[in-house]
Amino acid sequence: MTTAKLVTVQAAYEDFLQRSLSKLSCDFARLIYLASTRDYNTGSYHHDGLASRFSPEVAATALEMVHRQVFLQLSACSLEELVEQLRIYFDSSHDGAGEILRMWQKLEPYRIAIPVEVNPAVARLFLSNVRLALAIWRSRQDQSLRGR
Amino acid sequence: MISITLAIFMCSVVMLSLALLATRGSSVQRELAFRTDLPLYDESSGDPSLCPPEFAARIFSPVDSTFVTAENSRELVRLFQHERRVVALVWVHQTKTAIHRIMREHTRVTRQSADLNLLTEAKLLSHFVQLLAICDLLILAIQTAGAARVGALATYAASLSQSFADAQHALAITNAARDLRGASTAH
After folding, report:
1. CA-CA-CA-CA dihedral for A125, A9, A17, A132, to nearest 10
2. What is the distance between the terminal CA atoms of chain A, rounded to a whole angstrom?
3. Reported pTM
4. Which of A5-9, B77-81, B130-134, B158-162 is predicted with the least confidence, judged by mean pLDDT?
């Protein structure tokens, strides 16, 4: 990658952080959003706004960079921090937390939030931690229902 | 003086232990391939590097274990122990595979090198053997005691494997630079 292109990618990266990602409630919401900008079939990233301000290629590289960064941040979180991330994510959703929890445990949609070419042990740690965080939420819900 | 019978007995014990570790290692590999969501670390696909040390520290950290225990649920503790054990075994397997890859790469480079430093080579080989033994020991320890109890050994293995990778990398650069110098003086 040339220096000029690197500078442009860095500008696109900062633009995206400022305009789009900062408006989301937590890193978990950011990760899910970033994964949704990736094409399921080709694995390439698309964002109309960013592509129009820079170029589709630069936008895709910047999105991939941010995706990897947010993923690594979340994977390095403690279980307690991840449980809190999930709470903020569930609270910011329009759907009921109970329903999201049920679907997430059943379908495990967070599996597609992993970037391509990531370290296998880190990916496995992330999946395992999300599964555990969901189980903790389920257990807390069950305990509060039993307590009523 | 040690009698011949005792020496043979000790050799047999060592050989049996090594065979047991090797069998255990391959059974762990089979088990992981069956139980994990992601394909096992494979050299033909996936990231060939070592897992970053901060993630190794996270996998073996006792902080998460304390947090889960405070939730007062036996099922959660059981699930946590199972999940962490599998992640820890994936980490050990990946580390072992990466070490083998680094050593193979080093052997390839040294074969082409004209002047070898025997002391450096012996040091690298001893690191390699030590790391493999630690990884096998970790597999046994994780399976018997769980990931949270072997943090110190895992951290040691992570830092040793990183310095092993760094040393090999530095040697490869030195050899390449020497070859370049040799080529330029020949011209």
Report:
1. -10
2. 60
3. 0.82
4. A5-9
Contacts of A21 (CB under 8 A, 6+ apart): A30, A33, A34, A66, A70
CB contact under 8 A, A136 and B76: yes
Cβ neighbours of B76 in A, within 8 Å: 132, 135-136, 139
Of B36, B63, B75, Cβ closest to residue A124: B36
Distance in angstroms (rounded) separating the CA atoms of residues A83 and A96: 17
- The domain ranges of chain A are 3-147
Domain boundaries, given as residue ranges, for chain B: 4-186
A147 vs B77 pLDDT, higher one: B77
Q: Is the dihedral of CA B20, B27, B149, B94 positive or negative?
A: positive
Over residues B2-23, the mean pLDDT reads: 67
Q: What are B94's two structure tokens?
A: 């990946």
